[in-house]
Amino acid sequence: MRSEDYGKLVEQKTENSPILKDCVCAFVVGGAICCLGQGIKDLILLFFELDEETAGTWTTIILVFLSALFTGIGWYDKLAKHAGAGTLVPVTGFANAMASPAIEFKKEGLVLGIGPKLFTVAGSVIVYGTVAAFFYGIIYYIVTEFFV
Predict the structure, then answer these.
(1) Residue range 117-130: average pLDDT?
(2) Whose CA, among 85, 108, 109, 120, lies 20 to 30 Å from 52?
């Protein structure tokens, strides 16, 4: 089968997704996750005598925990099925990307399953994030050292 024929076949068989509905769902769910994070931070600031930075750190920890927990019990995937990109809010999406392969490959054991598969999705984010941070750091150093 030629690639042009294959492309036509794929177009015939695939169903068009409702873009407007998908965008609205992603916006609402992503916003709700962000509002949840802000609510957690506000509660931490209200009930504990912490500065903004420490409250933000605890908020991140709680969101990562909740994301991993909801991934483990299957709720996060159900939410992502309907919300799409809205569940990719950086902290919770990253925690989901770390927890999903660990859960999927736990039967293979720690060495052959969880260990190598843990970073299959998140590994590229870590690598490219680290490389980008390195270059941004060099650019920042040059700009502040020589131009400011």
Answers:
(1) 78
(2) 85
Give the pLDDT mean for 104-133.
78
Terminal alpha carbon distance of the chain = 61
pLDDT confidence of 50, banded at 50, 70, 90? Answer: very high
The structure tokens listed for 39 are 């609510």
Which SS3 state, helix, strand or coil, does residue 11 take?
A: helix
Cα–Cα distances (Å) from 50 to 45, 47, 58, in that order, read 6, 9, 10
Identify the pLDDT of residue 63: 94
Find how far residue 63's CA is from the centre of its chain.
Answer: 11
Instruction: Please state, in angstroms and rounded to a whole number, the distance separating the CA atoms of residues 114 and 123.
Output: 13
